[in-house]
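Same chain as my last thread, 354 residues:
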Amino acid sequence: MALLTRALRVPSYGYEDEGKLVVPPAAVLFSEFRSRINPFIDRKNWLVFMSWAATLVCAIPLVGFFVFYFSWPLLIAGFIYSMVVLGTHGTIWYHRYCTHRAFTFSHPFFRFLVKNSVVKLIPDELYVVSHHVHHLISEKPGDPYNVNGGWLYCFLADANHQPIAQDLSEQDYNRLIPMLSHTGVRINSYKQYQRWGSIAHPLTTTIHFVLNWCFWYAAFFFVGGHGLAMVLFGAAGVWGIGVRTFNFDGHGAGKDKRQDGIDFYREDHSINQLWPGLVTGEWHNNHHLYPNSARAGFLPYQLDYAWWGILALKRLGGVTTFRDSKARFLAEHYAPHLERKALARKAVLATDCA
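reply #2:
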Protein backbone atom coordinates (compact mmCIF):
# COMPACT_ATOMS: atom_id res chain seq x y z
CA MET A 1 0.00 0.00 0.00
CA ALA A 2 2.73 2.48 0.97
CA LEU A 3 4.61 1.65 -2.24
CA LEU A 4 1.61 2.57 -4.39
CA THR A 5 1.45 6.05 -2.88
CA ARG A 6 4.92 6.76 -4.29
CA ALA A 7 4.86 4.49 -7.35
CA LEU A 8 3.89 7.19 -9.85
CA ARG A 9 5.86 10.16 -11.13
CA VAL A 10 4.60 13.28 -9.36
CA PRO A 11 3.81 16.18 -11.73
CA SER A 12 5.67 19.46 -11.36
CA TYR A 13 2.60 21.09 -9.82
CA GLY A 14 2.22 18.34 -7.23
CA TYR A 15 -0.91 16.57 -6.13
CA GLU A 16 -1.87 18.48 -3.02
CA ASP A 17 -1.26 21.67 -1.09
CA GLU A 18 -2.04 21.72 2.63
CA GLY A 19 -4.10 18.57 2.21
CA LYS A 20 -6.16 19.93 -0.69
CA LEU A 21 -6.04 18.71 -4.29
CA VAL A 22 -4.05 20.94 -6.61
CA VAL A 23 -6.18 21.73 -9.68
CA PRO A 24 -3.87 23.44 -12.20
CA PRO A 25 -5.20 25.71 -14.96
CA ALA A 26 -5.31 24.33 -18.48
CA ALA A 27 -2.08 26.09 -19.49
CA VAL A 28 -0.16 24.34 -16.71
CA LEU A 29 -1.66 20.96 -17.56
CA PHE A 30 -0.70 21.35 -21.23
CA SER A 31 2.79 22.51 -20.25
CA GLU A 32 3.24 19.38 -18.15
CA PHE A 33 1.87 17.29 -21.02
CA ARG A 34 4.41 18.75 -23.47
CA SER A 35 7.26 18.05 -21.05
CA ARG A 36 6.14 14.43 -20.58
CA ILE A 37 5.43 13.46 -24.20
CA ASN A 38 8.67 14.55 -25.88
CA PRO A 39 11.21 11.69 -26.05
CA PHE A 40 13.82 13.97 -27.61
CA ILE A 41 14.23 16.01 -24.43
CA ASP A 42 14.08 12.93 -22.20
CA ARG A 43 14.22 9.36 -23.47
CA LYS A 44 12.23 8.31 -20.38
CA ASN A 45 9.21 9.87 -22.08
CA TRP A 46 9.20 7.09 -24.69
CA LEU A 47 6.21 5.19 -23.27
CA VAL A 48 3.89 8.21 -23.16
CA PHE A 49 5.05 9.24 -26.63
CA MET A 50 4.27 5.77 -27.99
CA SER A 51 0.81 5.73 -26.43
CA TRP A 52 -0.20 9.10 -27.85
CA ALA A 53 1.54 8.55 -31.21
CA ALA A 54 -0.31 5.26 -31.71
CA THR A 55 -3.63 6.96 -30.99
CA LEU A 56 -3.07 10.08 -33.09
CA VAL A 57 -1.63 8.22 -36.10
CA CYS A 58 -5.03 6.51 -36.41
CA ALA A 59 -6.38 9.86 -37.60
CA ILE A 60 -4.65 9.22 -40.94
CA PRO A 61 -6.66 6.10 -41.89
CA LEU A 62 -9.78 7.71 -40.46
CA VAL A 63 -9.43 10.68 -42.83
CA GLY A 64 -8.53 8.31 -45.66
CA PHE A 65 -11.73 6.37 -45.06
CA PHE A 66 -13.93 9.46 -45.20
CA VAL A 67 -12.18 10.84 -48.30
CA PHE A 68 -11.80 7.67 -50.39
CA TYR A 69 -13.86 4.79 -49.01
CA PHE A 70 -16.82 6.18 -47.12
CA SER A 71 -19.93 4.04 -46.90
CA TRP A 72 -22.58 3.71 -44.22
CA PRO A 73 -22.08 -0.04 -43.67
CA LEU A 74 -18.35 0.51 -43.13
CA LEU A 75 -19.05 3.42 -40.78
CA ILE A 76 -21.37 1.19 -38.73
CA ALA A 77 -18.66 -1.48 -38.64
CA GLY A 78 -16.22 1.13 -37.33
CA PHE A 79 -18.70 2.26 -34.69
CA ILE A 80 -19.22 -1.30 -33.45
CA TYR A 81 -15.49 -2.00 -33.46
CA SER A 82 -14.74 1.15 -31.44
CA MET A 83 -17.61 1.05 -28.97
CA VAL A 84 -18.20 -2.66 -28.46
CA VAL A 85 -15.19 -4.70 -29.57
CA LEU A 86 -12.37 -2.46 -28.36
CA GLY A 87 -14.30 -1.39 -25.28
CA THR A 88 -15.08 -4.97 -24.28
CA HIS A 89 -11.50 -6.06 -24.95
CA GLY A 90 -10.22 -3.20 -22.78
CA THR A 91 -12.46 -4.36 -19.96
CA ILE A 92 -11.32 -7.97 -20.29
CA TRP A 93 -7.61 -7.38 -20.84
CA TYR A 94 -6.55 -4.15 -19.12
CA HIS A 95 -9.16 -4.01 -16.41
CA ARG A 96 -10.08 -7.50 -15.28
CA TYR A 97 -6.94 -9.44 -16.18
CA CYS A 98 -3.89 -7.17 -16.22
CA THR A 99 -4.84 -5.05 -13.21
CA HIS A 100 -7.12 -7.14 -11.02
CA ARG A 101 -6.25 -10.70 -12.08
CA ALA A 102 -9.93 -11.60 -11.90
CA PHE A 103 -9.23 -14.72 -13.97
CA THR A 104 -6.28 -16.87 -15.00
CA PHE A 105 -5.25 -18.23 -18.39
CA SER A 106 -4.58 -21.94 -18.78
CA HIS A 107 -1.58 -21.29 -21.06
CA PRO A 108 0.44 -18.28 -22.30
CA PHE A 109 -0.87 -19.04 -25.81
CA PHE A 110 -4.38 -17.96 -24.79
CA ARG A 111 -2.99 -14.90 -23.03
CA PHE A 112 -1.21 -13.99 -26.26
CA LEU A 113 -4.40 -14.42 -28.28
CA VAL A 114 -6.47 -12.24 -25.97
CA LYS A 115 -3.77 -9.59 -25.67
CA ASN A 116 -3.53 -9.27 -29.45
CA SER A 117 -7.16 -9.84 -30.41
CA VAL A 118 -7.59 -6.16 -31.32
CA VAL A 119 -5.47 -3.26 -32.59
CA LYS A 120 -3.00 -2.41 -29.80
CA LEU A 121 -2.98 1.22 -28.64
CA ILE A 122 -2.31 1.45 -24.91
CA PRO A 123 0.89 0.10 -23.32
CA ASP A 124 -0.03 -2.22 -20.47
CA GLU A 125 2.28 -0.51 -18.01
CA LEU A 126 0.63 2.91 -18.32
CA TYR A 127 -2.71 1.40 -17.42
CA VAL A 128 -1.93 -1.19 -14.78
CA VAL A 129 0.24 0.47 -12.14
CA SER A 130 -1.75 3.71 -12.14
CA HIS A 131 -5.04 1.82 -11.93
CA HIS A 132 -3.89 0.13 -8.73
CA VAL A 133 -3.19 3.60 -7.34
CA HIS A 134 -6.60 4.82 -8.48
CA HIS A 135 -8.37 2.10 -6.51
CA LEU A 136 -6.26 2.70 -3.41
CA ILE A 137 -6.89 6.46 -3.18
CA SER A 138 -9.87 7.04 -5.45
CA GLU A 139 -10.80 10.74 -5.67
CA LYS A 140 -8.09 11.73 -3.20
CA PRO A 141 -4.89 13.69 -3.95
CA GLY A 142 -2.56 11.31 -5.78
CA ASP A 143 -5.34 9.53 -7.67
CA PRO A 144 -3.87 9.80 -11.22
CA TYR A 145 -7.25 10.52 -12.83
CA ASN A 146 -8.96 12.24 -9.97
CA VAL A 147 -12.39 13.40 -11.16
CA ASN A 148 -12.17 16.41 -8.85
CA GLY A 149 -9.30 17.72 -10.97
CA GLY A 150 -11.64 18.28 -13.90
CA TRP A 151 -12.04 16.87 -17.39
CA LEU A 152 -8.63 17.94 -18.76
CA TYR A 153 -6.88 16.69 -15.62
CA CYS A 154 -8.32 13.23 -16.36
CA PHE A 155 -7.89 13.39 -20.13
CA LEU A 156 -4.14 14.11 -19.96
CA ALA A 157 -3.58 11.78 -17.02
CA ASP A 158 -1.75 9.05 -18.94
CA ALA A 159 1.02 11.55 -19.62
CA ASN A 160 0.85 13.81 -16.58
CA HIS A 161 0.10 11.37 -13.77
CA GLN A 162 0.24 7.72 -14.82
CA PRO A 163 3.92 6.96 -15.66
CA ILE A 164 5.85 5.27 -12.88
CA ALA A 165 8.23 7.29 -10.71
CA GLN A 166 11.74 7.85 -12.06
CA ASP A 167 13.56 7.63 -8.72
CA LEU A 168 12.44 4.28 -7.32
CA SER A 169 14.90 2.33 -5.24
CA GLU A 170 15.89 -1.09 -6.53
CA GLN A 171 13.80 -2.68 -3.79
CA ASP A 172 10.70 -0.65 -4.68
CA TYR A 173 11.18 -1.27 -8.40
CA ASN A 174 11.36 -5.01 -7.83
CA ARG A 175 8.15 -4.81 -5.83
CA LEU A 176 6.38 -3.15 -8.76
CA ILE A 177 7.44 -5.81 -11.27
CA PRO A 178 4.85 -8.42 -10.15
CA MET A 179 2.09 -6.01 -11.18
CA LEU A 180 3.10 -6.63 -14.81
CA SER A 181 4.97 -9.93 -14.85
CA HIS A 182 1.81 -11.92 -15.63
CA THR A 183 0.94 -9.83 -18.71
CA GLY A 184 3.72 -11.07 -20.99
CA VAL A 185 5.55 -7.72 -20.99
CA ARG A 186 9.36 -7.99 -21.19
CA ILE A 187 10.55 -6.59 -17.87
CA ASN A 188 13.49 -4.19 -17.64
CA SER A 189 16.28 -4.86 -15.20
CA TYR A 190 16.77 -2.17 -12.58
CA LYS A 191 19.68 -0.78 -14.59
CA GLN A 192 17.49 -0.65 -17.70
CA TYR A 193 14.73 1.00 -15.68
CA GLN A 194 17.18 3.72 -14.64
CA ARG A 195 17.96 4.31 -18.31
CA TRP A 196 14.45 4.12 -19.76
CA GLY A 197 12.25 5.08 -16.79
CA SER A 198 9.86 2.19 -17.32
CA ILE A 199 9.16 -1.41 -16.43
CA ALA A 200 8.56 -2.37 -20.07
CA HIS A 201 11.47 -2.48 -22.50
CA PRO A 202 11.14 0.00 -25.43
CA LEU A 203 12.47 -2.32 -28.14
CA THR A 204 10.18 -5.27 -27.46
CA THR A 205 7.22 -2.96 -26.85
CA THR A 206 7.78 -1.24 -30.20
CA ILE A 207 8.17 -4.55 -32.03
CA HIS A 208 4.96 -5.79 -30.41
CA PHE A 209 3.01 -2.74 -31.59
CA VAL A 210 4.42 -2.93 -35.14
CA LEU A 211 3.67 -6.64 -35.55
CA ASN A 212 0.20 -6.24 -34.06
CA TRP A 213 -0.64 -3.39 -36.45
CA CYS A 214 0.77 -5.20 -39.49
CA PHE A 215 -1.24 -8.31 -38.71
CA TRP A 216 -4.52 -6.48 -38.17
CA TYR A 217 -4.21 -4.21 -41.19
CA ALA A 218 -3.52 -7.26 -43.36
CA ALA A 219 -6.42 -9.18 -41.79
CA PHE A 220 -8.87 -6.30 -42.24
CA PHE A 221 -7.67 -5.74 -45.81
CA PHE A 222 -8.13 -9.42 -46.64
CA VAL A 223 -11.72 -9.30 -45.37
CA GLY A 224 -12.83 -5.93 -46.74
CA GLY A 225 -10.03 -4.10 -48.53
CA HIS A 226 -8.51 -0.75 -47.62
CA GLY A 227 -11.92 0.69 -46.76
CA LEU A 228 -12.52 -1.74 -43.91
CA ALA A 229 -8.92 -1.56 -42.72
CA MET A 230 -8.97 2.24 -42.65
CA VAL A 231 -12.28 2.60 -40.86
CA LEU A 232 -11.38 0.05 -38.19
CA PHE A 233 -7.97 1.57 -37.53
CA GLY A 234 -9.61 4.99 -37.45
CA ALA A 235 -12.20 3.65 -35.03
CA ALA A 236 -9.38 2.37 -32.84
CA GLY A 237 -8.07 5.92 -32.62
CA VAL A 238 -11.52 7.19 -31.66
CA TRP A 239 -11.61 4.61 -28.87
CA GLY A 240 -8.10 5.62 -27.80
CA ILE A 241 -9.30 9.21 -27.33
CA GLY A 242 -12.59 8.21 -25.74
CA VAL A 243 -11.09 5.88 -23.16
CA ARG A 244 -9.07 8.81 -21.81
CA THR A 245 -12.33 10.56 -20.95
CA PHE A 246 -13.98 7.58 -19.28
CA ASN A 247 -12.97 7.99 -15.66
CA PHE A 248 -14.22 11.58 -15.52
CA ASP A 249 -17.67 10.49 -16.68
CA GLY A 250 -17.52 7.21 -14.75
CA HIS A 251 -17.16 9.18 -11.52
CA GLY A 252 -20.08 11.50 -12.17
CA ALA A 253 -18.10 14.34 -13.76
CA GLY A 254 -17.23 15.54 -10.28
CA LYS A 255 -20.81 15.47 -9.00
CA ASP A 256 -22.61 12.95 -6.85
CA LYS A 257 -24.81 11.17 -9.39
CA ARG A 258 -25.11 7.90 -7.48
CA GLN A 259 -28.61 6.43 -7.34
CA ASP A 260 -30.09 4.33 -4.56
CA GLY A 261 -30.71 0.77 -5.70
CA ILE A 262 -28.24 1.13 -8.58
CA ASP A 263 -24.93 2.38 -7.15
CA PHE A 264 -24.13 0.52 -3.95
CA TYR A 265 -20.46 1.48 -3.48
CA ARG A 266 -20.38 4.68 -1.44
CA GLU A 267 -16.66 5.28 -0.86
CA ASP A 268 -16.37 7.38 -4.03
CA HIS A 269 -18.63 8.85 -6.73
CA SER A 270 -18.30 6.02 -9.27
CA ILE A 271 -21.58 5.23 -11.03
CA ASN A 272 -23.10 2.47 -13.13
CA GLN A 273 -23.66 4.17 -16.49
CA LEU A 274 -25.94 2.59 -19.05
CA TRP A 275 -23.82 3.44 -22.10
CA PRO A 276 -20.44 1.94 -21.23
CA GLY A 277 -22.20 -0.77 -19.26
CA LEU A 278 -24.42 -1.97 -22.09
CA VAL A 279 -21.69 -1.86 -24.76
CA THR A 280 -18.61 -3.02 -22.83
CA GLY A 281 -19.75 -4.54 -19.53
CA GLU A 282 -18.10 -1.72 -17.58
CA TRP A 283 -20.51 -1.18 -14.67
CA HIS A 284 -18.12 1.09 -12.87
CA ASN A 285 -19.71 1.35 -9.44
CA ASN A 286 -20.07 -2.43 -9.33
CA HIS A 287 -16.43 -2.69 -10.32
CA HIS A 288 -15.34 -0.45 -7.45
CA LEU A 289 -17.50 -2.51 -5.12
CA TYR A 290 -15.87 -5.79 -6.20
CA PRO A 291 -12.75 -4.85 -8.21
CA ASN A 292 -11.41 -8.41 -8.40
CA SER A 293 -14.57 -9.88 -9.90
CA ALA A 294 -14.51 -11.19 -13.48
CA ARG A 295 -18.18 -10.18 -13.68
CA ALA A 296 -19.43 -6.63 -13.10
CA GLY A 297 -22.96 -6.91 -14.48
CA PHE A 298 -24.90 -8.12 -11.44
CA LEU A 299 -28.51 -7.14 -12.20
CA PRO A 300 -30.63 -8.56 -15.07
CA TYR A 301 -30.37 -5.47 -17.27
CA GLN A 302 -26.61 -5.10 -16.71
CA LEU A 303 -25.28 -6.84 -19.82
CA ASP A 304 -21.67 -7.84 -19.47
CA TYR A 305 -19.98 -8.78 -22.76
CA ALA A 306 -16.62 -8.95 -21.02
CA TRP A 307 -17.96 -11.58 -18.62
CA TRP A 308 -19.46 -13.55 -21.51
CA GLY A 309 -16.09 -13.44 -23.25
CA ILE A 310 -14.34 -14.78 -20.16
CA LEU A 311 -16.96 -17.54 -19.86
CA ALA A 312 -16.45 -18.46 -23.52
CA LEU A 313 -12.71 -18.71 -22.94
CA LYS A 314 -13.38 -20.92 -19.92
CA ARG A 315 -15.45 -23.31 -22.02
CA LEU A 316 -12.78 -23.37 -24.72
CA GLY A 317 -10.15 -24.27 -22.13
CA GLY A 318 -8.37 -20.91 -22.32
CA VAL A 319 -9.30 -19.82 -18.79
CA THR A 320 -8.87 -22.02 -15.74
CA THR A 321 -10.24 -19.97 -12.83
CA PHE A 322 -12.15 -16.75 -12.29
CA ARG A 323 -13.78 -14.79 -9.48
CA ASP A 324 -17.50 -14.07 -9.70
CA SER A 325 -18.91 -11.73 -7.04
CA LYS A 326 -22.55 -11.71 -8.18
CA ALA A 327 -23.73 -13.96 -5.32
CA ARG A 328 -21.95 -11.76 -2.78
CA PHE A 329 -23.46 -8.63 -4.31
CA LEU A 330 -26.97 -10.05 -4.17
CA ALA A 331 -26.57 -11.25 -0.57
CA GLU A 332 -24.63 -8.31 0.83
CA HIS A 333 -26.23 -5.41 -1.00
CA TYR A 334 -29.22 -6.12 -3.21
CA ALA A 335 -31.25 -8.36 -0.87
CA PRO A 336 -30.90 -5.87 2.03
CA HIS A 337 -31.91 -3.08 -0.36
CA LEU A 338 -35.08 -4.95 -1.34
CA GLU A 339 -35.85 -5.61 2.32
CA ARG A 340 -35.49 -1.92 3.15
CA LYS A 341 -37.82 -1.03 0.28
CA ALA A 342 -40.39 -3.57 1.48
CA LEU A 343 -40.24 -2.20 5.04
CA ALA A 344 -40.60 1.34 3.75
CA ARG A 345 -43.71 0.36 1.75
CA LYS A 346 -45.20 -1.31 4.83
CA ALA A 347 -44.52 1.81 6.86
CA VAL A 348 -46.27 3.98 4.27
CA LEU A 349 -49.27 1.63 4.13
CA ALA A 350 -49.49 1.61 7.93
CA THR A 351 -49.44 5.40 7.98
CA ASP A 352 -52.12 5.62 5.30
CA CYS A 353 -54.33 3.13 7.15
CA ALA A 354 -53.94 5.06 10.37
